[in-house]
């Protein structure tokens, strides 16, 4: 009886290990829970097209390595991250409010780091949001 339990346990554990290897190491995250404060937040720099260069520079410095130059989630570090890096060129992303993008970009979670201390200027934060949105027009 003990041998049967051992054999069955070994088969079950082996199956889980095999499934893990086959499916890769990508972890599917829970949907973001964006506080309504951010969802409804107005972008005070939504029309700041003159400052696209600032947004591009900050995106290149902080975001491009994971999200890629066009925002498709294909940056050089994307494969080394446990969770799937999102593609900004999807219908669901295009429906995001500026405030939701701000929250995800600045506050972050899990593999998406917070940039609250790296991008401290409020206008620059919004210019990154603007640049990200410009990638998917």
UniProtKB/TrEMBL annotation:
It holds the Pfam family Cytochrome_CBB3. Gene3D superfamilies: Cytochrome c-like domain. The chain crosses the membrane at residues 6-28. Keywords: Heme, Iron, Membrane, Metal-binding, Transmembrane, Transmembrane helix. This is Cytochrome c. Residues 50-136 form the Cytochrome c domain.
């Amino acid at each position: 009886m003990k041998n049967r339990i051992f054999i069955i346990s070994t088969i079950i554990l082996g199956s889980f290990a095999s499934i893990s290897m086959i499916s890769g190491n990508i972890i599917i995250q829970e949907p973001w829970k964006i506080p309504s404060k951010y969802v409804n937040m107005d972008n005070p720099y939504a029309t700041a097209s003159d400052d696209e260069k600032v947004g591009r520079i900050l995106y290149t410095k902080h975001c491009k390595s994971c999200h890629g130059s066009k925002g498709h989630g294909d940056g050089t570090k994307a494969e080394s991250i446990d969770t799937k890096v999102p593609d900004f060129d999807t219908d669901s992303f295009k429906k995001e409010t500026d405030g939701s993008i701000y929250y995800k970009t600045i506050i972050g979670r899990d593999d998406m780091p917070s940039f609250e201390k790296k991008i401290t200027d409020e206008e620059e934060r919004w210019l990154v949001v603007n640049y990200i949105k410009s990638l998917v027009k």
